[in-house]
Amino acid sequence: MAASLPAYADGDAARPARIILVGDSTMATRSGYGDALCQRLRAEVACINLARGGRSSGSFRAEGRWDDVQALLRDGAAYSASYVLIQFGHNDQPGKPGRSTDLVTEFPHNMARYVSEARALGGVPVLVTPLTRRSFKGAYLRDDLGPWASEVRRVARESGAVLIDLNRISADAVQAMGSAEADTLAQAPPGPNATTAAAAAIPGAAVEPQGTPKISFDRTHVGAKGASLFSGMVADELRRQVPALRPAFAPEP
Questions:
Q1: Is 158 helix (H, G, I), strand (E, B) or coil?
Q2: How far is it, in rounded angstroms, from Cα 109 to Cα 125?
Q3: In which band, very low, low, confident or very high, does the pLDDT at 201 lie, cut at 50, 70 and 90?
Q4: Residue 10's pLDDT is what?
Q5: What are phi and psi of 219, to 5 degrees?
Q6: By C-alpha distance, which of 133, 183, 104 is closest to 26?
Q7: Measuring CA to CA, which residue among 195, 178, 183, 172 is closest to residue 223?
Q8: 127: which strand partners?
Q9: Nearest 5°: CA angle at 223, between 126 and 134?
């Protein structure tokens, strides 16, 4: 099913768009790319980053955070459209009590429900596949989030939601740059034992803390350089797939 976008009424051009970010730490303030994406928009465009560290497609709703998104959508008359970017997967993986969801049943159901509920309140859902982790095995990037990305793609096809395949785009970029350069996208430089520790563990599988992670080296969260790179990818895809949003972006420096 092709992505369905809203038709705009006369006068919409005079009202700014709004973008609401829903996701985990890889999108959240300080640890993800979300704030950097907001900074790419013109000043009059509202951009609200509600992504929080440690949340999954299940726990974000269970904690009442989706209620906040729905309240915003109900109060959207001042905007030409409200785009809700939804990205989960990292904390839906097994081994994270209170957060993990079943890949076959719960995770796709949760993502489809976000799409339908956002639409019911006049929002435009945009599904985002999970940002790649940057752990390598030898010369090759580990694709441990691939199954969750595949489910998001399927939900987007079946629901007609706009899809930003950030998992694929970011993985291609990280693979091309290699492990050493990819490490420069982290929040802090790697310590002397970073390579050995990463090789001994499942990539990125340590349970992510609730809230904002401490500033430290890992291959999941991003610093300023990573946030700039990945927010640029999302911005490019939004401009390409949602023509109505092109004027919302400030000129690139």
A1: helix
A2: 15
A3: very low
A4: 46
A5: -110, 25
A6: 133
A7: 183
A8: 86, 163
A9: 75
Say if residue 10 is exposed, middle or buried (CB neighbours under 10 Å; 0-12, 13-18, 19+): exposed
In DSSP notation, 192-251 reads TTHHHHHHHS-TT-SPPPSSSPPS---SSS--HHHHHHHHHHHHHHHHHH-GGGGGGBPP
Element housing 47 (H / E) = strand 46-49
> 47 - beta bridge partners?
19
For residue 27, give the amino acid letter.
Answer: M
Q: Which two tokens stand for residue 118?
A: 């956002």
Q: Is the pTM of this model over 0.85?
A: yes
Q: How confident is the model at residue 215 (pLDDT cuts 50, 70, 90)?
A: confident
Residue 62 contacts by C-beta under 8 Å, 6 or more apart in sequence? none
Average of pLDDT values for 176-204? Answer: 72
Please answer whether residues 187 and 218 qualify as being in contact, where contact means their C-beta atoms are separated by less than 8 angstroms: yes
3-state secondary structure of 124: strand
CB 186 within 8 A of CB 223: yes
Distance in angstroms (rounded) separating the CA atoms of residues 190 and 4: 43
Pick from 8, 19, 7, 74: which is nearest to 44 by CA? 19
* CA 116 to chain CA centroid, nearest Å: 18
* Biggest CA-to-CA distance, the chain: 60
Which residue type occupies 197?
A
What span, in angstroms and rounded, lies between the C-alpha atoms of 129 and 126?
10
User: 125 in helix, strand or coil?
Assistant: strand
